[in-house]
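Tokens for Peroxisomal acyl-coenzyme A thioester hydrolase 1. Go.
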Amino acid sequence: MTRPGERELGREPTSEEQEPPVYEHGVNSVPEITEALQVEEIDVDLYKSLTLWKPSRARGVFGGQVIAQAVAASNKTVREGMLLHSLHSYFLLAGDETRPIIYQVSRVRDGGSYVTRSVNAMQKGRSIFTIILSYQRPEPREPAFAIPPPSLDADGQFLMESITGSHATGNHSAKSPTFRAIPGPAQCPLNEERYQDLLRRGHADANLRKILEGWISDRKASPVEIRDALPGMYDKNGIPTPGNQQAFWMRTRRPMDGGLEAQKVALAYASDFYLLSTVLKALNLSRGVKMMASLDHSMWFYQPFEVHDWLLFTTYY
């Protein structure tokens, strides 16, 4: 017999007895990036997210987190010594931050030199994201950079190749590259400082103030620190100036443990910031666009790095 309020051992609770499930969404909005990237194994080649984050004014889960968690799930199925060198992904539906994302890994190929995985991210029985990843056994004389890294000038500023140079045409011999000087991270403002300055000057109406406060909250709580690197990207009112190039200094607020492959997972997370805004800037559509969405996302990895070190993130259109 059972007393009132109890149920028999071994019997599933009825719908009246069950408490609604609680899913930790938004927990990753702290400077600890490892929490945002973790996935839990629930069966062979099947994983689920532990936390999800929906940015202010976003339609769904932050895309960088979905990419990173899919990479983390894939990494768990790859033998030691194989390193991720590229990924290609597509966003299909907005993710719901109130329920876990299920990541189903398919072991497409396990070769001697290359390994291929695909991951299907699902919610409510539907695919919301898909990705294919390629791993390779390290080889000598691998390329170090797709585009030459910035160099320092006599004043200690970084010289970054402009999009108007040779890489803009796809023909590296078309013309001599031009360079733009950008200050180091210590001389660049945090994203949230730009928004805070707009609020202090009192030019924002009630609606814009609410938007800016949401962005400031997102940036302060983010595990990734971002600084505006390229001078003149925004006017005094915070509106993007015309142009087809943006640059930001980025790093995680805390070191990332787990070796090089963990660094790549964290970089995948950070890589989804400020991509679409470059397109709006180039097309002079910074005002009046109500919704944006990216459909595909690809990355190539060339050499070891630390995500807690400052990385220069440049976008072109």
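Helices lie at 33-37, 63-75, 191-200, 206-221, 259-270, 276-283.
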